[in-house]
Amino acid sequence: MTSGITDAGKVAALVPEVERWLDSLYVAAEGATLRQEDRRKAIEVAAALLEIQQSLRHVSRKSQLVIVDAAAGKSYLGLLAAKLLLEPRKQASSLVTIERDGRRMDLSRRAAERLHTTVPIECRALDVADAAAWPMCPSIVVALHACGQAADAIIERSIASEAQYLLLVPCCTSDAVPAARVAAQNVDRLGIPRHAPVRRRFIQAFVDAERTWRLEAAGYQTQVVEFVPPTVTPHNLLWRSRRVREPKRMAAAQAGLDALLGGRS
């Protein structure tokens, strides 16, 4: 696996094409034009597409290739991955998008029809925590801005379904996230200052550490990188994970996870 931030030059080169697709599939279809937030989204989608492309280089061409776009929203990332990455690959491939919001799923289905791709696409209007939403052994699971508990559910379902790769970009963290509650319960015991910005950063770092150790303990070699600059989005960390199942690595990670959670009150 590569390390470090996604190649900024390659991202910039891909952005105009992503913008054209977002415009034709979503924006123009609604009688509008690209907004500034759409252009920022295009940068994130372009960077995520390059991450998927990098993972595809290590996926066998001899088996069925399945990408899951989890907590997909309007399925920007999944649909463009199907058109720009899977279709040219000329391999037996399919895309599954998972989104619990019915309105967003309807928009995804309409965009999929306009996409005119040869890649089979299945849009599942289910919660990412629902095991029934997930195919077994997906090649790559992607999740761009999975909020709160959704990020943890995607980690758990990716592990349970034995996904080969997970590319996860979490979004906001709330008290509903279990690791955030553990961190909040221990701020005073650990001597964290009362100042709100300091406590928020401590809690976020705790959540990030718990997710990283959990993936590693489950057998996923994991890197955490800034996939776009923070000027594009403050939620710019990508968990880049590959299922390797190395016993020593898993045991060391489990020890780290136990140590992290050992202060649970």
Can you walk through the features of this model?
This protein has one domain (8-261): Vaccinia Virus protein VP39 (Rossmann fold), CATH 3.40.50.150. Helix content is 48%, strand content 16%. It has eight helices and seven strands, in the order ααβαβαββαβααββα. The chain has a seven-stranded mixed sheet with strand order 3-2-1-4-5-7-6, with helices on both faces. α5 links the parallel β4 (140-146) and β5. α2 (36-56) packs parallel to α3. The protein starts with 7 loop residues before the first helix and ends with a helix.
Provide a quick synopsis of the model:
The protein is an alpha/beta fold. The protein has eight helices and seven strands; from the N terminus they run H-H-E-H-E-H-E-E-H-E-H-H-E-E-H. It starts with 7 loop residues before the first helix and ends with a helix.
